[in-house]
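User: Let's play a game. I give you a shape written as tokens, and you guess the letters that built it. Ready? Here's round one.
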């Protein structure tokens, strides 16, 4: 399989669910630019919420241990549940 076939960006579609993309800007496994491209592509076609947080100094496994900064996931999920996932 080619990189284009395995990239999440290749699977972006108008019916995508809400997304919260949290990415470290020092990720050595998946470049932060890849996450930015993915978010941009989603925002162009999806009516569902697409939120992006790029964490300064964070690596790929920044969320191994629970932290205050990662509580945003729970806030995002609660907000999406309240609104039924629609809108931006």
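Assistant: Ready! My guess for every position:
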């Amino acid at each position: 399989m080619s990189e284009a076939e395995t990239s999440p960006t290749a699977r972006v579609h108008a019916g995508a669910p809400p997304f919260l993309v949290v990415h470290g800007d020092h990720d050595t496994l998946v470049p932060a630019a890849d996450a930015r491209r993915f978010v941009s592509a989603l925002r162009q076609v999806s009516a569902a919420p697409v939120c992006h947080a790029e964490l300064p100094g964070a690596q790929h496994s920044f969320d191994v241990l629970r932290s205050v900064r990662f509580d945003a996931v729970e806030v995002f999920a609660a907000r999406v549940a309240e609104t039924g996932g629609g809108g931006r």
